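Issue 218. Parser rejects a valid record. Input:
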Amino acid sequence: MDILKLGTRSFQSRLIVGTGKYKSFEETRLAIKGSSAEIVTVAIRRTNLGQHSKEDNLLDFIEPNQTTLLPNTAGCYTSKEAVRTLRLARELLDGHDLVKLEVLGDSQTLFPNVSETLIAAKQLVKDGFQVMVYTSDDPIVAKQLEDLGCIAIMPLASLIGSGMGILNPWNLGIIIENALVPVIVDAGVGTASDAVIAMELGCDAVLMNTAIAAAKDPLLMARAMKNAVIAGRDAFLAGRMPKKRYQASPSSPASGMLPQMQTKSA
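Output the parser choked on:
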């Protein structure tokens, strides 16, 4: 069986979904179900997991036995904020240690602040967290984060929420080629074909939120993304045919064919 291994945990689905931007927690629940995702990422600073007793609790709308929560630090702009947020998540979730680190550089692009991300990653690994880390598509930074002990590298395909797809497959390919831990595309996926491309390049998984939540039919898009990730992974494992330029060959062999019938001219 083709298993995704993240730290000490194993998963069958290679699609990770977020929980923001849906119309309601009920729509969130249905989208997660339709995606068959086993990992669901949650913004601790924006989602109620019990810290607000008078509000709906997301945990009441997901299947705890079928879902692994991935607390994230969305909205954090310094390493101190990020570390503090994930320590809070560990308390809220009874010692949960699998987390997603993201430290943003500015509120307009949501591009990662790489220097602060490196500082936070070092501290969180020291604190015993299993850190999956959002970063730029810089192969050098990706390797530095891996060397610090992060269990998965999550380069952006394009800016968060942009839906622009994979803008730099070459950098992504270098990261994949050199990584000894899973590489997961995080941010920028807009539709199913983007997810297919990411998986065909050799990514181990894809994380998305807006692509599903902002679709005209989120539940149908959730199913589309599920199938796209599966198809892309299968294509990667199968190995595509080589591309050829001006070297056409028929799908059926020409040997053994009957000679063409000659027609007499009038």
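Fixed in the parser; the record now loads. Helices lie at 25-35, 79-92, 114-126, 139-148, 169-178, 192-201, 210-213, 218-238.
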